[in-house]
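#data-curation
PF: Archiving a pair of folding outputs for the training set. Convention for this channel: one message per protein, sequence first, structure tokens after, nothing in between. First:
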Amino acid sequence: MSRRPESERSDWTDLDLLTIEEAHGRLLTEIADTDVRLAGLGAGPADDAERELLQRRLRALREAAEDLTDLTDHTKS
């Protein structure tokens, strides 16, 4: 099976490109799912470690969603 390395593949051949709105919607869904996971954590060292990872993930997801919002705001004006 001969596949091109990722760096040589064209995005257009994937045919599953997301619009900014679709990407933003997926980020919002992931943010909500991560919030639920955080709320379900208990106390203890294992949960504390997972909580820290999920909080970092949540910050990154929110920043990405905000960046997409900023991007769509600039394209509309």
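PF: Second:
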Amino acid sequence: MTKRELVDAYVLGGNRIPFARSNGAYLNETNQTMLTAALGGLVDRYSLAGAHLGEVAGGAVVKLARDHSLTREALLDTTIARSTPTVDLQQQCATGGQTVVHIANKIACGQIESGVACGADTTSDPPIGFGPRLRDRLVRINAAKSNLDRAKLAAQLPLSLDFDIPSPAERRTRLTPGAAQAITGKAWGIGRTAQDEIALASHTNLAKAYDDGFLADLVTPFAGLAEDDNMRRGLTMAKLAKLKPCFGGPDGTMTAANSTTLTDGASTVLLGTKEWASSRGLRPLARVVDAQSWAVDYVDGDPKTQGVLMAPAYAVSEMLKRNNLALQDFDYYEIHEAFASQVLSTLAAWNDADFCRTELGRGKPMGEIDRGRLNVTGGSLATGHPFGATGGRITATLAKLLAEKGSGRGLISICAGSGMSVTMILEAA
């Protein structure tokens, strides 16, 4: 067999719908309708009607049984050629990032020339199912050989309804991400004011991005929304200071403002080779340089160093070592704001000599970043965080920032539940 050289994969653009707070504007929408809208907007924006693409990779974290082929069903509702294959992926909050990596890797290997990475999530349409007792009885009734046997089994149905309701709590520790991060943040000495500053910057930067028109070619209005409805204009530190803690007990530092809210939404990213882009009159925005996944032992490990959302601290370190880069060698940092406390814990770890030596195998701290380059068009605290859509939002945003600058590189860092993460490096095309 002939050895093939790796091909450069480029982000060519993106599109998403506005993100909406759970049980609000998208209460009557589904993962499929939202993903279809985001894909449809991408098709319109980049003239993809009738186009055969190499693959569309998508996913969602909160899925109903009917969503087993979510990405395929959404594609069939668009004008993308039906000969385009799809695949569904899932890695908690890193789902959208992993779909980007999946498509970029296939392009790099020469298996496809183009593709779309996408994702959606809704907590307004949760998969509420039957609990084990009721489910077991219903399955037995369905498998019974006669009506008499069915009647006998039906008489044994539990009198009380037995529902299985989704929960964000980790199955191993029974802690929600917020409760777990409260422990990690306290261990790192993360204070309330610093967290509120992250939240204020997130909302301020997002509002400016909308006002400046930066998001005009990245967001398609949907279901009556033209902007993310979690965004708060005119927010001040004084207003943030009035909020009560929602994690960490009465003396906690994490509030509803410096923690992400449950959110509905969908996003897409178009990727391709430089040649495929040229053939369709498209301009590459940024090259996908590298990516890294990592996981931590959040079950039995030290909650300070192995907290459930600390995996990006390790992933970024490994990725930078492989690319001979320092933490300061970036023009933009897109760090997913699951919680302001998580962002600050990660930054603290990178600047901690002991952590960098014992956990990352480095001779000195990775150092600090220029905070003026962090989430410059807003982050998840302002936009909200539909689990499967955040990675696409971040990737498309960073690619456009780099294209407008005309040079430089950007770092993506996404933490995920169950102690996982995905990180990426993008470089201006």
